[in-house]
Amino acid sequence: MAEFGVSTESPPERIDDLIDSTLMAKLDQVDVLSRKIFAGKLQGERRSKKRGVSVEFADYRHYTHGDDLRFVDWNIYARLDRLFLKMFLEEEDLSLILAIDSSASMNWGNPNKFHFCQRLAMALSYVGLVNHNRVSLFSFRHDDVEALPSLRGRRRTREVGDWLLDQQAEGRGGFTEAMKRIALGRQGRGVMVILSDFLLKEGYEKGLRYLSGGGYDTFCLQVLSPEEIDPGKHGLTGDLKLTDIEDEDVAEVTVSAALLKRYKENLDAYCGTLRDYCVRRDITHSTIDTSVDMSVLLMDYLRKRGLLK
Amino acid sequence: MTWLTPLSGLVLAGAVIPPLVLLYFLRLRRKPASIASTLLWQRSVEDLTANAPFQRLRFGMLLLLQLMALLMLAVAIMQPRLEGERRAGGRTVLLIDNSASMSARDAEDGDTRLEEARTRARDLIERLYAGGWMADAPGETMIIAFSDRAEVISRFTDSRTNLLDAIDRIRPTDGESSLTEALQLARAYTTNVNPDQQDRPMADPATIELFSDGRIQDLNEHVLRGETMNFHAVGSTEPNNVALTAVSIDRPYDKPTSVEVFVSLFNHNSTEVSSCEVQLSVNGTAVGIQDVTLPPAEVDENGVRRAGRSNLVFLPFDQPRGAIIEVAVLRPDDLPNDNIANVVLPPARQLSVALVDKKSRVLELALQGLSLRTSDFNMTGDELEQRIAEDRLDEFDVYVLDGFVPSEMTQGRFVTFGETPPIEGLNPYGESEPQVVLATKTEHPVMRYVSLDSLYVEASTLLKPARDATILVEGSEAPLMVEIRRGSLAVVHVAFDPLESNFPLLRSLPTWVYNVVDYLGHLGEGVASTVIRPGQAITTRVPSTAEDIRIELPDGSTVPLTPAETFDVSWGPSRRAGLHTISWKEPDVDDRVERAFAVNLLSTVEGDIATRESITIGEAQAQGDFGERAAYTPLWPWAIGVCLALMMTEWWLYHRRARI
Fold first, then answer.
1. Chain-chain contact of A4 with B33 (C-beta, under 8 angstroms)
2. pTM
C-alpha cells in the first residue's frame, strides 16, 4: 500500500505531458479575461480604454496639429468643411503573470499538486500566448524566484513548456519574499495568477498585500490534493507521527473520527479566512482539487470564476 | 470449583497486567508519515508537543477489554475445574437393575428405587458429559437394563441427549435380578469389532456403573475381566416387606370339585410381624381372611440372612367351575408387587378314557383307580378304526392302545404300548435285548412323582426318535418312552409291552397312568392353571376358528396376537406380575372367549429388598455409593474461549473507532 499522500505518478517529462493537442484545440477558443481593462504597450487584440487604431469606431474629435491625416473623416469635411478626426477603440495586449509555488510542500498528494500546477500553468500560458498576451512565468521557493518574462505569440509555447519542465518543487516556501519581488519587478498591468496551496506557516497576508495595491487583476488558485481535503477517506488511520516535508515539523496524532472532523473544520475555516482576505482586497480566490479534470477546470470552472472567457 | 495451578496464573497476571496498564500510561509509538504541512494538524491535535513520557490514564473500553482478556488468560492458566465425573476416551456401561425389588417405594420422596436409579444415572450422564463441546471427547456410554433378562436400552454412543432419552425409556419389570445376561451383553459390545485391529482381542475394558439394590441372585457366578465396577446402591438397608413366596391350588383327588389353597409367606423384616392378614378371593369376591404371625428374619451361623417363614392353608371349598383365585397380603409394605398372587383355576373336569384291545387287566385296573367321567375298557380295534374313519374320536379324551396299532393316526390323544404306531418320527429299527432305565425326564408332567429306577424290560422295540420327539425314559439301549406331538395328534408311546417288563409290579404305575391320562386329557388347558413367573412366556392353544386374538396385560393395554400353524399362541416374556387374559372371537358366538393366565412374582430372592451396602463379584468388592462421586471437568477451554471473544471484540472496537 502506498504511503499516505506520497505521489505515485511520474513527473511530466515532455511538453505533451503538460498539455495535449485535444486540450490545445479547446483552449484556442478561450482568452484570458480581466475584469479591469489595462493599457498595454503594444497594439494587441484587446479593447483598451485608450482610443486607438482599430476597426471599432468610438468617437470624433477636432483635428489638432500633428494628428495623423489618415484618420480624418473626409466625408464630414465635405459636408461641414471642418476637419474631424475619427477615433477608434485601440486594441492592446494584456500582461498575464503566472506565479507557481515550487516549495517542497507542493510536491505531495495524489495527483501531485506541483505537477498539477505545471499543467495548469502550461494551459493558461498557452491561452495567453495564443491570444497575443504578454505572458510572464515565475517559480518561487524559499529565497529564489525564477522568471521567464514577457513572451508573446504561439511560437513561444515550447519555450514555456521547457521552462516548466525544468522546475522542481523543493526547499522551503518563501511566499512573502517572492510576492514582494514579483510585485516590484512587474512590467505594466495585467492579470496575475498565483498557484499555491497557501498552507503557509509564515502567513499569506503580507505577501498578498504586495499584490493588492499594484493594479493587478489577481487570482489566487489554492491547489489542494484530495488527501488534504479529506484525509480519512484516503486511508489516514492509526497512531501516526506526521512530519512536515518542508520544515520537518512533527505532529503526533491518533486518527479518530473526532480528530478528522476537527481537521475538516479547521481546513474549512482556513480556506474561509483566506477567501475573506482576498475578497477584501479585490482578489479572486478559488480552491482547486488536484483530482479535477484539467479541461473541466479550464473550460468550465475558471470561466465561471472569470479568469477565462 | 478448584484450581489446579493457581500460582502460575497469578504469576502470569502479575507479569502481564501491570505492563499493559503501563503501556496505557506511556505514549503511543506512532507510525511515521510525511505530509505537505502540519499546519492544520497542529491546530487539530491537543496533545502534540507535550514531551512528558506519561499521560493521565484514561480508562477506555479498549483497556477494559484488554484487561479482561488477560485476566481470562490468567484464569485459564490457573486451570479451574468443576467437580464432575469424567473419563476421557473411556467406555462406560450403565447397568440399571429394573427387577421386581427395584419397584420398592423406599427411596426419597416416595419414589421407587428404579426412579431413584434413573435419576442417579441421569446425574452421572450429566457429569460425564458436563464439559459440553469444549471438553475432550468423553468416550462412549452404553445403557443396559436388566432383570432376569437384559435389554440394551442404548448402544455405545457419545450423545448425551440420546443417553438421557434412553434412561427415560427404562420400565420396571417383575423379574428377578440376574447379572449373567447383562454382563454377557456388555462384553459382547465392548469386544473389539474393528476389523483393522483384530490383533487386539478386546477393546479397553469398560467401566461398569451398576445401579441396583444389590439383590442380585447370581453375583457369585461372575468374575470381572478387567472391568472396573462402581456400585451405585439405591434403596434402604432396612426396608419393610412381607412377601408371598408360594401359592398353590389343588383339587383333592377324592373331591375333584373342591379346591384347597396353600400359601407360603416370608417376613424379610428384622422384627416380628404379629398380625398379617391374608385374604383369599375367588373371582374378585373375598371368601376368607386368615391372620398369621410371622417370625423375624434372622442371620444364621453362616452369615446368611434367613427370612421368617409361615405357611397357611385355606380349607377346601367347593368350586367346580373355573375361577381366578387371588391371595393378597393386606398389610402395607414397601414392595406391593409381591403382596398379591393370582392363580387361574381350571374347571373341575373329569376325563373320558377308552382302553382299546385290552391284553391284560393291568392297565384296566390302573385306569379304574382314576376318577373318570366315562370309560370304555373293552373297545376293540375295529371300533377304534371305525371311529377314526368317521372322525368320532372326540367322545373320549384319551385312548389307551394296549398293543393295538390303527392303520392311521392323524388326530386324537393316545397312549400306546408295544407295537410302534404309524407316526413319522419314531423310526423303529429292531428288537432289543433286555434293558434297564438310564435316565428319566423327571420334570415332565408325565414323569412327576414317578420312579422307574427299578424298571426292567425284557423285550422292546428299538427306536430312534426324531429330534422333535420328547424322550421321557431313556433305556440302556434305546428310548423306552417317547412323547410325540403333531398338531392335533398327541401320543405317549411306551416301546414295550407291560407284560414283558416288571412295570405292572412297580408302585409308580398308578401314578404314571394318572399322570399320562391327566397330561394328555388336559393338554392345551393345563398350561393355564400353572403359575407363570415374570420373564416366562404365556402360551396356549386356541381353536382353529378363533379370530381377533389378543392379550390384555395387567396394566390394561391389549396386544393383538397371531396364532402359529398349530393354533398355538404365545406372548412373552411377561414383564409384570398380574393377570394376563387372552381372548378371541369365535363364529356365531357374541361374547369373546377369554382365558386367563396369572403371572406371579412369588420370589424368595426379590422379596428380600434390603439394599446391600457392598457387592462382591468374583474377588472384586464394590462398595455401594449412596451419593455423589467426585471427579473433575476442566474449565480452562471456556476461559480461553472467553479470552478469544474479548480479543475479537477489542479488535472490532478499535477498527470501528479508527474508521470514519
1. yes
2. 0.47
With CA atoms as reference, the chain A residue closest to B660 would be: A257
**Strands B258-267 and B308-318: what pairing?**
antiparallel
Instruction: Locate the DSSP E strands across B251-331.
Output: 258-267, 273-282, 285-294, 298-299, 305-306, 308-318, 323-329
* Closest chain B residue to A103, measured at CA: B36
Residues of A with Cβ-Cβ distance to B657 under 8 angstroms: 256-257
Give the integer Cα–Cα distance in Å for B200 and B398.
62
Q: What is the rounded distance in angstroms from the CA atom of residue A253 to the CA atom of residue B450? A: 114
Q: Given the cut 0.90, state whether the ipTM is greater than it.
A: no
Say which of A199, A238, A240 has its CB closest to residue B39: A199
Tally of helices (H runs) and strands (E runs) in chain B: 11, 37
Residues of chain B with pLDDT under 70: 26-29, 46-59, 83-89, 130-138, 191-205, 253-254, 256, 348-349, 524-531, 566, 625-633, 657-660
Cell numbers for B649, please give them. Answer: 471484540
Check if the beta carbon of residue B584 is closer than 8 Å to that of residue B546. Answer: yes
Q: Check whether the bond before B573 is cis (ω within 30° of 0).
A: yes
Provide the pLDDT for residue B49: 44
CA–CA separation, A232 and B412 (whole Å):
109
Q: Taking CB atoms and an 8 Å limit, are A201 and B29 in contact across chains? A: no
CB contact under 8 A, A3 and B38: no
Grid coordinates of B376: 370304555
For B36, the closest of A197, A241, A252 (CB atoms) is: A197
Question: Taking CB atoms and an 8 Å cut-off, how many pairs form between chains A and B?
Answer: 110
- When scoring A1, A102, A244 by the number of chain B Cβ atoms within 10 A, the one with the most, hence best to mutate, is A244
Neighbours of A251 (CB within 10 A): 23
Residue type, position B570, single letter = S
Point out the residue among B27, B40, B659 whose CB comes nearest to the CB of A266: B40
By CB atoms closer than 10 A (0-12, 13-18, 19+), residue A63 is middle
